[in-house]
UniProtKB/TrEMBL annotation:
The keyword Transmembrane helix does not apply. Pfam families: PAD_porph. PANTHER family: AGMATINE DEIMINASE-RELATED (PTHR31377). The keyword Hydrolase applies. This is Agmatine deiminase family protein. SUPFAM superfamilies: Pentein (SSF55909). InterPro entries: Peptidyl-Arg-deiminase_porph. Keywords: Hydrolase.
């Protein structure tokens, strides 16, 4: 079976987009202790997004909206490309609590999976309602919402848009320990309209509390290309696992039976905060219309990562966004965003 046989299709991130969805950090989120630092990242992110397309910014209430609007306006951002929507949320990791959008005939289907705070690690009662609230607010066009009683985060999956899904066994097994790999694969293929699921058994990052989300490790750059986080320091604790993951990726084949073109990303020097290693992955980039927004960590490897992404995405501008503040809370650029395909925004 191929994707044309499905009535619905899960588009790749590089396909045309309407907007990028984010949630503004505030004092009631986990960012409270370092709010000033993370706001600077969000301002830089919105500035980068709005160079290419719209940004939809979730805000907790009118006061947060007024503050965010003032901060963004003072940064000379094109506010005609910024839309605010009021909706309560526990935190700002919209990759995992936001909608997974399928193209469904001439319209769209918003998949609303359970969000459990990464297996119950954090309270997620508001975040689990976010897709329903956004849908009820009327921001989506020609769309239906499908509620699925199954824990799945957007950061755990990556698609080539043509029926191949990439994911990690560690994360899915952690969420659903009683379910076999075969059954998990069948469920994902059914809900996400995929022809096959490629599993990675290796790869992790210290400081990552998602149980090895694939969007911190390996990502499709085209139907025949994968960008992945490498480690070139044999003394580093990640070396063996990431080399094993690289070997797994090299063994994968496209639907044509060919090896994938692989683009290994450089390794940043360890970033330690109050004795805790932080997960600085360059694989956590965000694709937008005409560009790739790249997490930058103030490391000399930033420039090397930019060069690798320019090779992997030769027709797109590579735009660094400072993300060192984000990894304090164990995620990066892709984790705080969710792209919305072209046509889905009302």
């Amino acid at each position: 079976m191929n994707q044309t046989a499905h009535a619905s299709r899960f588009p790749a991130e590089w396909e045309p987009q309407s907007a990028v969805l984010i949630a503004w950090p505030n004092a009631d989120t986990d960012w409270a202790d370092r709010l000033g630092e993370v706001e600077e990242t969000y301002i830089a992110l919105v500035a980068a997004i709005t160079r290419f397309q719209d940004a939809i910014v979730c805000v907790a209430d009118e006061d947060v909206e007024a503050y965010a609007r003032a901060r963004l306006s003072s940064a000379r951002i094109d506010m005609a490309r910024v839309r605010f929507i009021e909706a309560p949320y526990d935190d700002t990791w919209l990759r995992d609590s936001g909608p997974i959008t399928l193209r469904d005939g001439d319209g769209f289907r918003l998949l609303d999976f359970r969000f459990t705070g990464w297996g119950g690690k954090f309270d997620a009662s508001q975040d689990d309602l976010l897709v329903e609230r956004l849908f009820d607010a009327g921001i989506f066009s020609k769309s239906s919402r499908q509620s699925i009683d199954f824990a799945l985060e957007g950061g755990a999956i990556d698609t080539d848009g043509e029926g191949t899904l990439l994911t990690t066994w560690q994360c899915l097994h952690e969420r659903h320990p009683e379910t076999s790999r075969e059954q998990l694969g069948a469920n994902l293929a059914d809900w996400l309209k995929q022809d096959r699921v490629l599993w990675l058994d290796h790869g992790y990052l210290e400081g990552d509390d998602t149980d090895a989300h694939v969007d911190t490790l390996a990502r499709f750059a085209a139907r025949d290309a994968i960008v992945y986080q490498d480690c070139d320091d044999p003394a580093d604790s990640h070396y063996a696992e990431l080399k094993a993951m690289g070997a797994e990726l090299a063994a994968l084949r496209t639907t044509d039976g060919q090896p994938y073109r692989l683009f290994p990303l450089p390794w940043a020097k360890p970033i330690v905060d109050e004795g805790r290693r932080l997960a600085a992955s360059y694989a956590n980039f965000l694709i937008v219309n005409g560009a790739v927004l790249m997490p930058a960590y103030g490391d000399e490897a930033d420039a090397k990562a930019q060069a690798v992404l320019a090779q992997a995405f030769p027709d797109r501008e590579i735009v660094p966004v400072p993300c060192r503040a984000l990894i304090w809370q164990n995620g990066s650029l892709h984790c705080i965003t969710m792209q919305l395909p072209k046509g889905v925004v009302a």
